[in-house]
């Protein structure tokens, strides 16, 4: 049986092992009630808009498991980002509904300039056919954590 905090935390900890990764957070969201009219709302700012515009919103029985991570502004941070970008692309080519995208907040707010301080990256995992339990989604998360750890060892990726 799946345990949400353990499944998600395992993948988070694997990503955090990479040199150059400074933080990671995650969340699970039911996409089914999200429609195109909701996408411009601030509450939906974290969602993968291009993907959801293409489908007019979330699909029936679809969840999004999203991981948001930050990198340090260094060669190590860029190398970690490049490795994750390759990993996500490779998984997507293999059929996992996974994508990587940048995320940032507006350059200026009423409280001052924030350009250069808000850049983060999301990898979005879309899982359909979720009806009564999130276990099918967590099984994919467990598999991704295992594959990522294996790739890190295989390619001797620098870890902390």
- Contiguous uncertain segments of 5+ residues: none
Relative strand content: 15-25%
Average per-residue pLDDT, rounded, comes to 95
Main sheet: which strands, in order across?
1-2-6-3
The global form is: globular
Sketch the topology as an H/E string, one letter per element: HEHEHEEEEH
Tell me the structural class. Answer: alpha+beta
Q: Could you describe the largest sheet, including whether it forms a barrel?
A: 4 strands, antiparallel
Spatial extent as radius of gyration = 16 Å
Topology of helices and strands:
Blueprint: H1 4-16, E1 21-30, H2 49-55, E2 63-71, H3 75-93, E3 98-103, E4 108-109, E5 112-113, E6 120-127, H4 135-154
Antiparallel strand pairs: 1-2, 2-6, 3-6, 4-5
Helix pairs in contact: 1-4
Précis, in short:
By secondary structure, the protein is of the alpha+beta class. It contains four helices and six strands; from the N terminus they run H-E-H-E-H-E-E-E-E-H.
Describe the model.
With 160 residues, the chain is an alpha+beta fold. The chain contains four helices and six strands, in the order αβαβαββββα. Helix 1 packs parallel to helix 4. The mean pLDDT is 95. The protein is globular, with a radius of gyration of 16 Å. The chain has one domain. Helices cover 37% and strands 23% of the residues. The strands form two sheets. A four-stranded antiparallel beta sheet has the order 1-2-6-3, with helices on one face. A two-stranded antiparallel ribbon has the order 4-5.
């Amino acid at each position: 049986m799946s345990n949400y905090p353990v499944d998600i935390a395992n993948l988070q900890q694997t990503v955090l092992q990479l040199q150059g990764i400074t933080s990671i957070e995650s969340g699970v969201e039911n996409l089914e009630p999200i429609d195109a009219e909701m996408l411009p709302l601030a509450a939906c700012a974290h969602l993968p808009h291009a993907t959801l515009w293409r489908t007019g919103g979330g699909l029936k029985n679809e969840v999004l498991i999203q991981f948001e991570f930050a990198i340090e502004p260094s060669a190590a941070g860029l190398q970690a980002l490049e490795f994750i970008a390759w990993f996500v692309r490779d998984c997507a080519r293999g059929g996992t509904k996974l994508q990587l995208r940048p995320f940032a907040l507006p350059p200026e707010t009423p409280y001052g300039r924030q350009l250069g301080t808000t850049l983060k990256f999301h990898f979005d995992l879309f899982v359909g056919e979720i009806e009564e339990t999130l276990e099918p989604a967590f099984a994919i998360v467990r598999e991704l954590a295992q594959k990522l750890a294996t790739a890190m060892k295989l390619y001797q990726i620098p870890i902390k």
